[in-house]
């Protein structure tokens, strides 16, 4: 009789144990069910935050309203704590939490949300709901391509042929129609790269690898011609083919001229981002892969000048300074190459006052141009006025009437100081002269805005030095200091000085045209820089951070 009572007593102990453990069991249930529900709601809230950030980044001018409307439609009781526009910097060296900074005209939007997840078992302990917060950041991945140089309006056919012949090492003879076709032609850089990959049989994963590879310049010119033909620019393709036929076996690494920026990791599908004028691009290719010192004999091609011999030295581009950049930040600065030009010009013999026989006038001109530089300031993808703003400035320019040691022309590590030139040299009477002009180095950055229409038509915006300059030769000759020497003694012979000065003034304008043509073919401007946006892509917003 005792066993049944004992059994009944044991069952009663279990009941007491279960009753005592019930709060703990409910707590475990609350932890499992309510916390699991809160996690599911948090994931739902994160999805809404992501969607709101993407929508807001796609409509930056109405980001706050767009984000709030989407949140209200998705989760009516959720609260938008903050919608912040700003800039996102995708820099691995910057901590993730610091990559987004608030800015009124930024390219990114950060949305912060809060909500409450209802509970079931936790109500027993007085918790009707649990607070949850989530945030998301989205950025508009817009890229623009831009270049500096391209003095297309100044192209002179004879100078182009002389420079192309010097750069290739063989005679290049293009006609007027060829020049015009090259000036007007434009090529899509990424279509060119796709064809270059096939022609050169390169096994690369993406554009970054392709640009880092050494390729033959002949393959590059062949791919350039193929691309021009595929886009209906037959005349330009034929002209490119003739230049390519004059090339040797030199190689080039395109990465020294083209910075693909965020598109480096892409393998295909980037056409339309960068369309560049063919002639300056072709010249840049030859400069990078060919001679650095050029000798041009332009004969009597300058009005009023019997002979013109021009030596050109092309300096190396600055480190990390490509000819073309595709970027979404202002960190990349592009520059034109440095150049030194030494022109030796001779005026046809003429009878000068005080001289009994004909005399020639020799005029040596030296120009050292550091060119110009440019950087991206802003990309505006807001419809309907999409635009890109560039900043540019002109580097220092030095010019002089004077004689130099031509052997030092290509040594850009050392300055060149021209000495007084002997303009007229006869047995009894000499005329010497010197002059110097300089554009200072303290040039400010100048902003230029390119609308979508300007980008589509290849419009060029010119920046100019803050120092007024009518023309190198004109300025030098106008302020030249002339002196007459008779058997070693200086004499004030005014008629002779006025005659020499008058003859030089008469050839000043043609000489400026010559200098502009030479520097223009090299992609330089004297005291000027031409900015051009070659493409704009306003991509979809993506989640970052």
List the helices and strands and how they pair.
Elements: H1 2-58, H2 63-74, E1 79-88, E2 100-102, E3 108-118, E4 129-148, H3 157-168, H4 176-184, E5 186-188, H5 189-199, H6 207-212, E6 214-216, H7 217-230, H8 234-245, E7 251-253, E8 258-259, E9 275-277, H9 278-289, E10 293-299, E11 307-314, E12 324-327, E13 333-335, E14 339-351, E15 358-369, E16 372-380, E17 387-394, E18 397-401, E19 421-425, E20 429-439, E21 446-451, H10 452-456, E22 461-464, H11 472-478, E23 481-486, E24 489-491, H12 494-521, E25 528-544
Parallel strand pairs: 8-12
Antiparallel strand pairs: 1-2, 1-3, 3-4, 4-12, 4-25, 5-9, 6-7, 10-11, 11-14, 13-16, 14-15, 15-18, 16-17, 17-21, 18-20, 19-20, 20-23, 22-25, 23-24
Which terms would index this structure?
Tad_N, eight-stranded mixed β-sheet, 545 residues, 33% strand, alpha+beta, elongated, transmembrane
